[in-house]
């Protein structure tokens, strides 16, 4: 729809009507947009590809915001739409759980095949991703360690993320893992880890993943 610069827009936060949560919002010519995904400055092509996918192929009214250190994609909303998110609270929890399963699987493989030094570097890289993406309950070193080592089978206390956080994590996780391993062979092993999820939740996560903007990365 639009490619805009920072000076073209106003960015603020609005209170979600059903959650104790501040939602980032972008305002442009009387229209309101909510954050979908964030890319680094060197990921211009990936950002534009997702923007075109959403705008041209899915018919969504989206803004691509170009800043010196990042690109971000924002989707048009009406404020009353916040009351009925496209993904329910329960479903969002399942998506978060599935993404952490994949995160842990990649971490275990890096530690096993590349050693503890690379595992430590990967942990720092993931922390940077979570900090830059402003992931709730996941920006400190202790929080990252909790994500990497928590028992996901026994009713874990997982962070309250939104769908855009899950998409960002899966995209960046794939990019980092490909850099560490030098190929994408890790995908099959990581996705196999999803078998540890309860069947109903695994089916829901896989169904969402197949339709998401990161589906090609994880198949």
Keywords, separated by commas or semicolons:
single chain, 219 residues, alpha+beta, Phosphorylase Kinase, domain 1, 2 domains, 6 strands, 48% helix
Question: Which helices and strands occur, and which strands form pairs?
Answer:
Elements: E1 2-5, E2 10-15, E3 22-28, E4 31-40, H1 44-57, E5 62-67, E6 70-77, H2 89-114, H3 116-132, H4 141-149, H5 163-181, H6 186-192, H7 199-211
Parallel strand pairs: 1-5
Antiparallel strand pairs: 2-3, 3-4, 4-6, 5-6
Describe the structure.
By secondary structure, the chain is of the alpha+beta class. It has two domains: 2-84, 2-Layer Sandwich (Phosphorylase Kinase, domain 1), CATH 3.30.200; 89-218, no CATH class. The chain is 48% helix and 19% strand. The chain is built from seven helices and six strands, in the order ββββαββαααααα. It has helices at 44-57, 89-114, 116-132, 141-149, 163-181, 186-192, 199-211, and strands spanning 2-5, 10-15, 22-28, 31-40, 62-67, 70-77.
State which percent range the strand residues make up: 15-25%
Radius of gyration: 17 Å
Helix content: 40-55%
Count of distinct strands: 6
Structural class: alpha+beta
Discrete helix count: 7
**Series of H and E elements:** EEEEHEEHHHHHH
Residue stretches low in confidence (pLDDT < 50, at least 5 long) are 83-87
Strand order of the largest sheet: 1-5-6-4-3-2
- From the N-terminal CA to the C-terminal CA, the straight-line distance is 29 Å
The domain tally reads 2
Shape field: globular
State mean pLDDT (0 to 100 scale). Answer: 86
Tell me about the largest β-sheet: 6 strands, mixed
